[in-house]
Every structure is written in structure tokens, then in C-alpha cells.
Amino acid sequence: MIHTHQFDNGLVLLAEPMDWLESAAFTILVPAGCIHEPADRSGLSGFTCEMALRGAGPRDSRQFINDLDCLGVERSESVGEAHTRYGGATVADNLPRGLEIFADLLRRPRLPADQLEAGRQVMVQDLLAVEDEPAQKVMLRLRQQHYPDPWGRPSQGDADGIEATTIDDIRRHFQRAYHPRGTIVGVAGRVDWEPLLDMVGNLLADWEPRDVQPVPESPQPCVYTHLEYDSNQTHIGIAYRSIPYRSDDYFLAWGAVGVLSGGMSARLFTEVRERRGLCYSVYATHHSLLDRGSVFCYAGTSAERAQETLDVTLNELRKLAQGVEEQELDRLKARIKSALIMQQESSSARSASIARDWYHLGRPRSLDEINQRIDGLAADKINTYLSDNPPGDFTVVTLGRKELEVPVGVS
Amino acid sequence: MEFLKHTLANGLEIVAECNAQAYSTALGFFVRAGARDETDEIAGVSHFLEHMMFKGTPSRTADDVNREFDEIGASYNAGTGEEHTVYYAAVLPEYQDQATALLADILRPSLRGEDFDMEKQVILEEIYMHEDQPPFGADEKCRAAFFGEHPLARSVLGTIDSITALSPEAMRDYFAKRYSPQNVVLAAAGRVDFERLVATAEAMCGRWERNGEERRLTSAHPATGFHVVQKNAATQQYVVQFAPGPDCNDPDRFAARLLATVVGDDTGSRIFWELVDTGLAEQASLAHDEFDDAGAFVTYLSCTPDMVGENLQRLHDLLVDLECRGITAEELEQAKNKVSSRIVLSSERPLGRLFVIGGDWIQRREYRSVRTDLNAVAEVTAEQVNAVATSYPLTRSTVMTIGPRADVTEPC
Lengths: 411, 412
Known about the structure:
The structure holds 2 protein chains of 2 kinds. Chain A is an alpha+beta fold. Chain A has 2 domains: 3-204, Cytochrome Bc1 Complex, Chain A, domain 1; 224-400, 2-Layer Sandwich (Cytochrome Bc1 Complex, Chain A, domain 1), CATH 3.30.830. Chain A is 43% helix and 20% strand. Chain A contains 15 helices and 13 strands. In chain A, helix 1 crosses helix 7 and helix 3 packs parallel to helix 8 (193-204). The longest helix of chain A has 18 residues, at 326-343. Chain B is of the alpha+beta class. Chain B is 43% helix and 20% strand. Chain B has 15 helices and 13 strands. In chain B, strands 1-2-8-3-7-6 form a 6-stranded mixed beta sheet, with helices on both faces. A 5-stranded mixed beta sheet of chain B has the order 9-13-10-12-11, with helices on both faces. In chain B, strands 4-5 form a two-stranded antiparallel sheet. In chain B, helix 10 (270-276) runs antiparallel to helix 11 and helix 12 (329-347) packs antiparallel against helix 14 (370-379). Chain B starts with a strand and ends in a 9-residue tail after the last strand. Chains A and B meet through helix 2, strand 7, helix 4, helix 10 and strand 12 of A and helix 2, helix 4 and helix 12 of B.
């Protein structure tokens, strides 16, 4: 049973009680993602998140972190294209006090001017760290090149944007983007709905709503980019268009990616790694925005075998259009069904899933419903989908010592 | 929650924490085999062997192994460390027998020559990948300098040269010595049918021959020193620092864990406030690692190259201050809350419990419930933590820094 409530100001509260657990977890999605950043302030959402954690309400920066630590709240934050996410998990009894502290962050952040330079340094360090992570760097660039701006922006921003950001920029961004219309609070674990609803209502029901800003787009026409980089391995990123999570056909597209990558008997792992020994790491994953989806693939291999790796990988992607086999689908179903049951062992995983579902679908999806959808998947339906939507029009980014031959107009 | 154990005639031990309420079953073979059991000639063989285990048995091809794990929807993998290699799977309870039998079967692999040659390429790719990633091998280099002649000095991955030169015969020889049943523990957690677990293990592992070697334990004489390795291709500067700490049999290990949390947890610790919150470093943390015959406090730091000297000095001053004045009662309380909460959260999944149960058994032949561990954390006093900080001075360390800077000087 998943409870839902939308307050008059637009804020949505979702809760999935899991009384067999000792823990409870929350996921707060605030509509303050990179798409809302001005073009010359790339990184502003991450910077604002960094500053928001530096004290709120009665607590200064140090007290804020110390009090959460004392409640045993395991925190994590991230910035995506549409949202800034604040997550936490702890023993169930401490959840209400943890949520109170985060309600202060949403409504009464101090955004202290005297810590702006420290916050800026944190952002600069994050940006530089990516330079030493070639696998991450190639995938960030791939997203940027594949989606029309601002949908592929990296949360780390760019050096100019971070350098130019003032405390007023941050306060203005907070004012504009942190508001209840579009904020989703997902809670899961050992919680009771009624007291939770009362508590969150007291904390957030009178939070003033604001209008949602439209997001203008500009296309990114580039197909292939090579980034020079001094490394042993060449890193390869490939993207192609798919459909979004909200689409009726989503599970067909997702099932096809599952045949490509997932278990160790999946095609990419088998063909690229097991049969040819080309890679240690190779994968494909489905990514969904609200109104469009993509498949992102990665392979990392030593420079002299990079061309073969790219060719073999592209070949596997193209071959997918010829369809999947019944046995491949059966294995995928077995893996997913057991993963779904194991989700019931994690309050964090469930709180994140139900919040994400609300954003994409306007309702949470129960594990039972997902189970039924998976049961209903048939190879012939996936194959019809694949022949209507064959993987093609690839966007490719490589990073390493040598550029690769990428078939022009790759399809 | 019930703990059960059984030993097969050949010495293979089976331990399980059975929880009838759990949704899944986690199973793992814990093998007393790791980098420390190797020699220079076969450096990296434990890890390479771990890969080869998935390459087939007399009755299964490599494809069969991968396919059969996927058919039962298993979340499975393996990992190699300095002291142990672990093969594990989490499955729905109805697949317990199949998963146990499959794991047991792959632990008696064919080690075929052509599979060996193919997988060698994958291992070399893994080494290349590792060398391209922070801290660019500084962790292995620091470990080697710190442990010196002690077997814990060895690197898990081995080197390009040692892997290239490795023969299937050398691997078979190593396998025969290390994978003998008295070096193996089968652990399980979650919804476990223990009777069936023992029956499957008896059928699959009962005839494994006992012919292996015991591990050579020896006391460590950790070195101190300061080393700089220049790497121009790196953007950031990285520091790894090893200092001695309690080993896995030392009752002080809980105090050591709390000390590491107070001083260097990734949030709310002294190092966090000094170096991370201020933006002086990208990452800075301290953790405690425990082994059979040694322990280590390991510090990790990454920052812009221009800041490394100042950051090392700040870190040094912070550790000197700790040695002089110790920690406060409030700091200890905060650390206990964090550590306890983490124990509870990580125990909710059977897979989380599996690593604790299997790890405790193979290291100490000891079962500890979640409650026992929570009590042990609760009972630690500030005096005990401060005694650890005095007995194991964090400043008496081996330091390795890697990055664009060649001229980093030791703090004073």
C-alpha cells in the first residue's frame, strides 16, 4: 500500500510503510535541477545545494551536520537535470526529527555569505575531480552532446559559471527554484501514515507556492567527438534515442536494453568481454527524461583494441533490431523479479522509486504493478517495438590517445 | 534469528544466520586466499583465479555458468582482497539449492588453457583501467612501502608483467594449495533452510580433497616514510597514508573504528570540518582496516596540486592535536550514533549480513549478532578510544603522494 497526498500548495507526500524493517528513509525531489540554471551560471544548482546544507533555521552549518549525524541519518544529495535530490535513511524512530531538519533547509536556509568561498572551492574541486575520471568524463560529455541543451548539462557545471556565481545568484536561484509546486517527498520504511501526514503538513503545508518557469531548448547537432586524453585506455560512449518512462511501450524498450546489458549472460558482456576479452567494463543503460528517453552505452579498453571494441559494440546495438529470443527474455524476467522482491529489503530504494514515479507518472507504481508488467512482457511485442524503433542515429564520444573511425551518420 | 553451524568431514565449515522473515537468501563461499598468499612470480594470481572460476567446470561451459546464474535471477559476483576471496549470490529462497550447487561447482573449475588466455586480456584491461583512475596506484605503492617484507604489502591486481608471464600451471598449483576445504567457509544469511544447505554442501563439496597449506602469519614491522611520485597527466594531487592499527583479533578494534569515525568520517568528522567543508580538499577521510596479523589506519586525501603542502600540514597538526588531547565525550557519542545506524541499515539486507557473518567466521571463527555488535559499540569509552590514539600514533605513518607536483615536502 502506497499512501499519497497532495497539499494545496502543490507539494506531494508519498509513503510506503514497510513494517518489517528497522529503518525509514526519505527522498526529497525539489524542482531545482540544472535545466533552470542561466546559461552563464552553469553549476548553480549544485552550488546552491552545497550552500543549502550550510545551516538552516536555528542551526548553523556545524550544528546542522552534527545534529543529523547524532540522529544517525545517512545523507546523500545529488543534482540532476530536473531536480535537486536530498536523501536520508536512519533507524525509524529518528526519521521525524531528520525530516524536521530538512524542512528547515527547504524553507529557512541560511545560505551564509561568509561561506560562499568555501562552497565555491568545493564546487571547483568536484569539477577538477572529473578530469581524473575518464569513464565519468566521457559519459558526461555524451549526455551533453546527445540531449538538446539544457537537458544534458552536467551537474558539476563549468569553471566560468562557478567563478562568476555570487551569493545573490544563489539566493535568487533558491527563491525561484525551491518551491512546493513540483516538490515530491517520498518516505518508505517503518512509518505510520497518519502521524507522518500530520507532521509533514505542519512543516510544509503553508510553504508559499510559486509559478513554474518554462524551459527553452536549443539543439545539439554534433554526432561524434573525440577528446584527447593521456590514458592507457580509450573510453567509448554511445547513445541512441529511446522512449520515456511514462510511455505505454516503456517496458518493451527497457526489456530490450535488459537483453543487451544486465546479467553476465547479456549480449554486450558476452560478445565484448567474454568472447573477445576486449573490456573489463561494458554496459548499456536506459535513461529517461519526462518526455524522451535514451540508451547510453559505455566500453573502456586499451587504445590498440578500441576500434574493434567500438565496431563490435555498434554491431551488437544494430543487431538488436533483429529481435530478442524467448530465453533471453526469460532470464531478464527472472533477474528483475528477484530484484523487485529484494527492493522490499531497502527503505532507501523504495523511497527513491516512489518519488521518481510521481515525477514521471503523477502516481506511484507499486511493486505488484511492476511485477504484472514484467509478466506481460512477450518477445514478439518487444520485437515489433524493435523493428519499428531500431537502434540507430548514434551519438558517439571517445576519450583517449587516438581518435576512432566512426561510420558517418552512424545508424 | 538463529545461528547454525556444521563442519564437513574434510574440514569445510558451514555457518548461517537464519531469518524466517527475510525475503531473500544470501550465500557465499569465503576462501582464505588472497594477495598475501602469493609470491612475486605469481603476483595477482588470486584475483585472476577469481575470474577463472566463472569460466566453466567439467560439467559447465563459461556460458552455462553465466546463463544459469541469470536464469535463477541471482545477484551474484565475486571479490578478491589481501586475505580472502569471496563468491556470493543473493537469490529468492526457492532457488537456494540451485544457487548453492552452482557456486560450489564453480569452485572446482576446469581452468582451461584457452579460457585462461582470453581472460588474461580482461585482467590486463582491469589493470590498465585501475592505473588510469585515482589515486593512480598510490594506494598499492603506499601499502607496499608501509608493510615492507610483510605479505600484506602485496597488490591484489598484480602487475602487467606478472600477469603476462603467468602460466595456467602456476595457477593450478596455487589453486590446489589455497582452495582446500579447510580454507573454505560456506556462509548464508536471510531465509535459509539450513538442513538443505548442509545436504547440498555435502553432496557438492564432500569429496573435495584436503591437501592445502595453512597461511603463514607473521608480525608486521610497518615502515614510516614520505614518498612523492610525479604524474603529469593527473589534474589533482592525491595522498595515501598508512599508520599501524589494531588487528582483527584485537578487542580494541571497535575503539579503532570509532576513532576513525571521530577523526576522519566522510561527514561531520575533524578532518571533514578542517579540509572538506572548507573546500581545501576534494576528499579527505580516515578508515581502519583489520587483517589477521596487522591493522592499519588509512588516510586518503585529494586536492588541487597547489594546496597539497598546506593540507598535509593541517592534517599533521590535527593528528598531533589528537595525540595530545584525545577526543571528547560528545564526539564519541556522535560517532556511536553514526556507526550504530550504519550497522542497522546495512543489516537489513541478507546480503549485508552475509559479509559480516562470513567475514567474522573466516577471520575469527566467531558469530556476532547485530545486537552483539551494537552493544560492543555502545560500551566503548572515550578512555579506550584515547588509549588507541596513544598506542597507535596516526602521525607515525608512511605517506605517498602522486600528482603533478614533484616538490611536495613533508609536514613538520
